[in-house]
């Protein structure tokens, strides 16, 4: 009986996550209806809360896949509760990605949950565990862009449409960065089981610095330009133009001067 109770509590959704979901729902409603006196504040809270929700679901996908692959220690670590505070490194998993959204509009990959890989047998399972996180971002992007590629924008307020476009931008950038085969990112985790032991040992010391390397490279103007050209192409394929994402970011950064071209709040 004790074991069953413990297992149930390990999987109970965290009140912290439910609170974030509530913020997302209320501010999404305020953005849609124009209820807020300052629409930028509502969009900021809506997009930020939705971004944190996607980060939680990203980590949950890793954990849930690991659980079904053989790591039964996942539940006791609190990863199945969707509590952002239970992750291995809350700073890397939540705080840093949110700061990058505020500063530069990039969906930065967060830190990963701690998985006991020795409990898992089979290279395909290890690859799937790593792929589960960014695939969640892909799914989130599909949901955010659905009104655009389904041509179902009639009646959707401009502010809400811009907010969805910016949120989709974050999800696409997060997915693309996560899929990079760089040590420390999920893309490398997908191919690592298929590499020789010698290569893995040589690359292992680089893992803690992989994300920092990616950030540094993105600061190079030429690389940054190519990266966002790819992002824009992907978003156009999903029905979102550059104007929508630009206006979404402009509205999100409510503390800066509003570009009247966007017609924010109209």
TrEMBL record:
The keyword Magnesium does not apply. InterPro entries: Metallopeptidase_M50B, Rip2-like. It is found in: Cell membrane. GO terms for biological process: proteolysis. GO terms for molecular function: peptidase activity. The chain crosses the membrane at residues 16-35, 90-115, 127-150, 162-185, 206-228. This is Site-2 protease family protein.
């Amino acid at each position: 009986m004790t074991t069953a109770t413990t297992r149930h509590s390990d999987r109970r959704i965290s009140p912290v996550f439910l609170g974030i979901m509530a913020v997302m729902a209320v501010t999404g409603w305020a953005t849609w209806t124009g209820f807020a006196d300052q629409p930028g504040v509502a969009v900021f809270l809506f997009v930020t809360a939705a971004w944190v929700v996607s980060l939680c679901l990203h980590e949950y996908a890793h954990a849930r896949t690991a659980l079904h692959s053989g790591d039964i220690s996942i539940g006791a670590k609190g990863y199945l509760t969707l509590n952002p505070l239970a992750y291995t490194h809350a700073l890397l998993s939540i705080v840093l990605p949110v700061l990058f959204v505020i500063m530069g509009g990039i969906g930065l990959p967060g830190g990963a949950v701690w998985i006991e890989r020795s409990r898992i047998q089979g290279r395909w399972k290890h690859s799937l565990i790593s792929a589960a996180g960014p695939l969640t971002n892909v799914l989130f992007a599909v949901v955010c862009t659905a009104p655009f590629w389904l041509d179902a924008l009639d009646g959707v307020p401009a502010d809400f449409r811009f907010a969805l476009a910016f949120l989709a931008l974050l999800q696409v950038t997060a997915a693309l960065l996560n899929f990079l085969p760089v040590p420390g990112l999920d893309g490398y985790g997908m191919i690592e089981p298929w590499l020789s032991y010698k290569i893995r040992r040589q690359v292992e010391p680089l893992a803690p610095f992989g994300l920092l390397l990616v950030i540094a490279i993105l600061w190079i103007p030429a690389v940054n330009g190519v990266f966002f050209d790819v992002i824009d192409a992907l978003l156009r394929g999903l029905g979102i133009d550059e104007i929508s994402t630009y206006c979404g970011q402009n509205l999100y950064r409510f503390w800066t001067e509003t570009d009247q071209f966007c017609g924010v709040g109209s």
